[in-house]
Amino acid sequence: MIGFEAKASPRIVYGVDAVDEIGSMVKSIGAGRVLLVTDPGIVSAGHMDRVAKRLRQSNIDFCAFTDVAENPSTKEVERCLETARAAEVDLIIGLGGGSSLDTAKGCNLILSNGGKIEDYKGYGKASKPMLPFIAIPTTTGTGSECQSYALIATEDSHEKMACGDPKAMAKIAILDPSLAKSQPRFVIACTGCDAMAHAIESAVSLNHNELSLLYSREAFRLINANLEIVLASSGIEALGAMLLGSAYAGLAIENSMLGGAHSAANPLTAKYNVVHGNAVGMMLPHVMRYNAGEVSAASNYALLATTVGIATNTDTQKKACERLISRVEDLLVQSALSTSLSDFKVTRDDLPHLAADASKQWTALFNPRPVSAEDFVALYEAVL
User: Which of 194, 212, 213 lies closest to 277 in space, CA to CA?
Assistant: First the structure.
């Protein structure tokens, strides 16, 4: 048995049209001036207007920062910060995908504690209390609403910095599947594969424990059962299940960590603009095969497989692992995401540089099987 200390989690409000209660939730916190952080796509989909209408109906003053970009950089955080400071806000709402939620967290870190976002790279570096934060995800995958980390890219190198602090965790996470219906299929595929990777990698991370495994298993159960459905149609029940699976996977990460697939994915996003979920998805099966050589990882892979009925209790551990990897590959095919680095003009000569970057990623430290730059070269070669 592995000892653990449970991390704080947000109050989770789940259900169709749950976002319409945002006014009463803000009032319950006692905030007087709200910053709403979102992106142009969410504005176009009408989601910002919906939230704004409810805030107005509750006589809550608010301002908005609507220029969040995919893979937000220090630049977006600084511009968001300018809006927050000018309005003297006392609560922040993040509305959108992981980029909007991460920008909101990054802004909150600096607004509450000063300095610049680079000062918070790592974990637990905020010395002062932070503003209350309400997270409203509109995609079914990142799980950022249940994590205390903000992933912010540097403006020059596009390196993703993990800036985490327990005070950055959302006070309330609103999971409303009606907001997820506007997702394009490509976004569903990318975020769904990302959430699947979160569930699987957190289950075998060196930091996994009894609590994180509960979240990992339930997250994988929901994602395995519903990803195919939401890829084919935006049924509200399946979207709701994916939202829950994503949130549980986020809680699994918060109480565990990730591993090699995310380490390998980040340089692909930084250097070749591969969408994060696509990058993680294409690397995941190969990292799983690599990790299956480690006893504890193989055991937890087998546990995931038997939990959802991919394997049976009579299967050998090796067979159960193979069936889990095969299922992941099948879902990647159904997602119609690219599974070849050559599609992004990556060449064999690029692999040593990518591998060097991958081996320096924070999450590589938590991979269940030690993974060196040379190992990452082999993993990239498998996807080339």
Answer: 194
Residue range 11-180, CATH number? 3.40.50.1970
* pLDDT tens, position by position, 184-193: 999 999 999 9
Check: CB of residue 301 under 8 Å from CB of residue 220: no
Is a pLDDT exceeding 70 seen at residue 12?
Answer: yes
96-122 mean pLDDT: 96
What is the reported pTM? 0.95
CB atoms within 10 A of CB 24: 10
What angle, 0 to 180 degrees and rounded to 10, lies between the N-to-C axes of helices 236-255 and 185-204? 40
The pLDDT value recorded for residue 233 is 86
Task: Answer whether residue 309 shows pLDDT above 80.
Answer: yes
Distance from C-alpha of 216 to C-alpha of 309, rounded to nearest angstrom: 15
E-assigned strands of the chain? 11-14, 33-37, 61-65, 91-96, 122-123, 133-137, 149-153, 160-164, 172-175
Q: What is the CATH number of domain 185-383?
A: 1.20.1090.10
Cα 200 from Cα 215, distance rounded (Å): 11
Tell me the pLDDT band of 1, cut-offs 50, 70 and 90: low
Mean pLDDT value across the chain: 95
- Sequence ranges of the chain with CATH classification 1.20.1090.10: 185-383
Q: How far is it, in rounded angstroms, from Cα 284 to Cα 365?
A: 16
> What is the DSSP annotation of 227-257?
HHHHHH---HHHHHHHHHHHHHHHHHHHHS-
Q: CATH 3.40.50.1970 in the chain: give the residue spans.
A: 11-180
* 3-class secondary structure, 37: strand
Q: Which residues contact 17 (CB under 8 A, 6 or more apart)?
A: 176, 178
Give the dihedral sign, CA 178/179/181/185.
negative
Whether residue 160 is predicted with pLDDT greater than 90 in this model: the reply is: no
DSSP secondary structure code for residue 347 in this structure: -
Per-residue pLDDT at 269 = 94
Strand 91-96 and strand 133-137: the pairing is parallel
